[in-house]
Amino acid sequence: MNGTPRRINRFFTGLVGLVVLAAGVFLMVVSAVPAVAQAWHRAAEQWVEWFHRRYESTPLLASSWIYLVAVAVLLVIVLLTVRWISVQGQGRVSLLVDHADDSPTPGDVTISGNVAEQMLRAALAGRSDLLGLSVGTYQYRGVTGLRVRLYPRKGASPQKLVREVGVLLQGLDATVGQHTPVLLHLGTGTRALFTREERVL
Known about the structure:
Strand order of the largest sheet: 5-6-7
Radius of gyration: 29 Å
Order of helices and strands: HHEEHEEHEEHEH
Structural class: alpha+beta
Shape: elongated
Largest sheet: 3 strands, mixed
């Protein structure tokens, strides 16, 4: 529901996984097969000699411009990494409603996303089949919606819980004066896994 680039994340995750897997297999082969180890040492020596030749043939002041190129490439990688990190989880907003009022009195109408959270918490407080909930306000493709996560107790009826929460969300729409898209997620957290069900004997 947020603006996280999931396809790019999956691509880079798969790419890094393949690189790590290939490196691990290569190290195993080098350590297990003497012929491959000897070939690798010869190739490494050739690459080192090639680098020294290029280093000596590209003088710049007291060093070589190869290092400047390497620093520039690393700087670009750092900037791209910072940009990639900055776009993770985008889309979360603080206002559920934010629009101009068309009434004779000029002004804007704004309703915080905390209003929805407090209303749901107050309405669901004291339920024995619910351990907790969290509510977040997100904007996706210009549309503001809610992501509601419910953590039911073991043995609770998910159909009943979803149905009753749906009624509360309809009441929320009537309160704020607009239809709000909602992503409802039922999950099991650590608290749900280790909380014992209370029984009356």
